[in-house]
Write a structure and sequence with these properties.
Layout: H1 5-13, E1 19-23, H2 28-31, E2 34-36, E3 49-53, H3 55-60, H4 64-68, H5 77-88, H6 94-104, E4 120-126, H7 129-145, E5 149-157, H8 159-167, E6 173-177, H9 178-186, H10 190-196, H11 200-215, E7 218-219, E8 229-234, H12 235-241, H13 246-253
Parallel strand pairs: 4-5
Antiparallel strand pairs: 1-8, 2-8, 3-6, 3-7
Helix pairs in contact: 6-7, 9-11
């Protein structure tokens, strides 16, 4: 049976199916009481979020590096799932959700008064809530820690549109995912892909190096969460059956 993504989550929620595929930071995980099954076989590639930017941005404004890195390693999968839930299902504004999180983490600062003719940092995003939230976080950090203005261009479209806008100089930075950079934009040979073994650090280092070599673009350190393809079950059912990983699901199905 093939279902549209929205229907897949509804089917799991209503117990029409027991296992579905989805995304590991989707807000519906919290909204529908689902559980991500741990990928202990490393069968699915990592999709760690990180900012991709034009190196000219940091050359012109070197103070930005430390500002952007304030988010490095700060967002867990569960934290990002909760933020997505607030936007997608509580219908809160991405900016309000982003600022509240920064305040809780002690990262928020009031925007600085802008000098005359302040330089502008142009932040882009793809067309879903997670990206909007991340862009608002970066915008707030830049406004509170630098004398730079910020222009946000959210909802530009899919991966190719954002990537080409970055390469073409229409934007200076956008949040990307290591798995997307690897499989959609770089498309390495099967041999190169196999050599990475799905290891998050190896994938990031490969993507970082190849983006520099091929495109002259820079990846900063990942934010911490992995918005990867995953298998999901209803949390209550998973607990009842003692299933928390893909291998445990496989063992249960083989009984």
């Amino acid at each position: 049976m093939v279902l549209a993504p929205a229907l897949v989550y509804e089917a799991a929620r209503n117990a029409h199916v027991d296992v579905i595929d989805g995304y590991s930071t989707d807000g519906r995980i919290r909204a529908y009481g689902l559980q991500v099954l741990r990928d202990d076989h490393h069968a699915l590639p990592p999709y760690f979020a990180a900012p991709v930017l034009r190196p000219t941005l940091l050359r012109a404004h070197p103070e930005l590096g430390a500002v952007l890195d304030q988010l490095s390693g700060q967002l867990s999968d569960s934290a990002m799932t909760n933020l997505n839930y607030q936007v997608d299902y509580l219908h809160l504004e991405p900016r309000a959700v982003a600022l509240a999180w920064l305040r809780r983490r002690g990262l928020w600062r009031a925007p600085r008064p802008l000098p005359p003719a302040a330089a502008v940092v142009r932040l882009g995003s793809k067309i879903f809530a997670e990206q909007y939230i991340l862009v608002e976080m970066y915008a707030a950090l830049i406004r509170g820690n630098t004398d730079l203005a910020v222009a946000t261009k959210t909802g530009l479209g899919g991966t190719t549109i954002c990537f080409e806008a970055l390469r073409g100089g229409q934007i200076d930075m956008y949040p990307e995912y290591t798995g997307t950079g690897l499989q959609v934009l770089l498309q390495p040979s099967p041999r190169a892909l196999d050599s990475l073994g799905g290891r998050p650090a190896a994938v990031f280092q490969y993507v970082q190096a190849e983006f520099r070599r091929r495109y002259g673009l820079e990846w900063r350190a990942p934010l911490g969460f992995n918005n990867a393809y995953c298998l999901l079950m209803r949390r209550q059912q998973a607990r009842q059956l003692g299933i928390s990983s893909i291998s445990e699901l496989g063992s249960y199905l083989r009984r």
